[in-house]
Design a protein that fits this description.
Order of helices and strands: HHHEEHEHEHEHEHE
Strand content: 5-15%
Strand order of the largest sheet: 4-3-5-6-7
Structural class: alpha/beta
CATH topology of the largest domain: Dna Topoisomerase Vi A Subunit, Chain: A, domain 2
CATH architecture of the largest domain: 3-Layer(aba) Sandwich
Radius of gyration: 20 Å
Shape: elongated
Distance between the termini: 55 Å
């Protein structure tokens, strides 16, 4: 894409580096920003800079947070002996939007995928095991993508935790095989959580 300004080209290149943003969309966004007054553009830039410099990950569940322990983990109203395991922070947002879950979370940071070079040591599985050992967790819900990688990850976690005194369940297959949790509609996702089943049943 040939542009008349090096500054414009640089801005478009930065925007087009974002997931799902092509060159044309990037140009449209940059031109939109150019039409805004300086205060709005500075607020936009400052929000991104502040996000990058100040955001942290919860030391307990690895959710994005403004403080060392996130609002969910520190909430007195959450069920503290129930942990829902998800691959990504976006899955927490999707599950919270259903209004059907009131426990805690654990973000793995991905799923086991040898083809992508992601193994168990690259995820927070060992930290999850420590939580189960030390925090009186009664149930672990596995809410992972219904794919070979997701199932492999779920089985690996099951093997790690099965000898502890907590039940291990998996969300019902109201979510289609291969679907991302974050894209599931709220009704189907909420029903899948409520109708979760013991993980052992999925091995039969």
């Amino acid at each position: 894409m040939e542009l008349t300004s090096k500054l414009l080209t640089e801005a478009v290149q930065q925007f087009s580096g974002l997931p799902g943003i092509g060159k044309k969309t990037a140009l449209r966004l940059v031109l939109h920003l150019l039409k805004q007054d300086e205060t709005k553009v500075n607020a936009f830039a400052n929000a991104l800079t502040t996000l990058k410099n100040e955001v942290v990950y919860c030391k307990q569940c690895y959710n994005i947070s403004d403080t060392e322990i996130c609002e969910i983990c520190s909430s007195a109203s959450r069920s503290r002996n129930l942990v829902c395991v998800v691959a990504d922070i976006r899955d927490i947002i999707a599950i919270e939007n259903t209004g059907q879950y009131n426990g805690l979370y654990h973000v793995l940071g991905g799923i086991i995928s040898p083809i992508d070079g992601i193994g168990p040591a690259d995820l927070t599985i060992d930290n999850l095991e420590r939580r189960v050992m030390n925090d009186n967790i009664k149930e672990v819900i596995l809410a992972l993508k219904g794919s070979i990688e997701g199932d492999t990850t779920a089985f690996y976690i099951y093997k790690k935790l099965k000898d502890y005194s907590c039940s291990i369940s998996i969300i019902a297959r109201g979510i289609s095989i291969g679907d991302e949790i974050e894209y599931a509609d709220e009704i189907s996702l909420g029903r899948s959580i409520l109708q979760r089943t013991p993980f052992e049943n999925s091995l039969k």
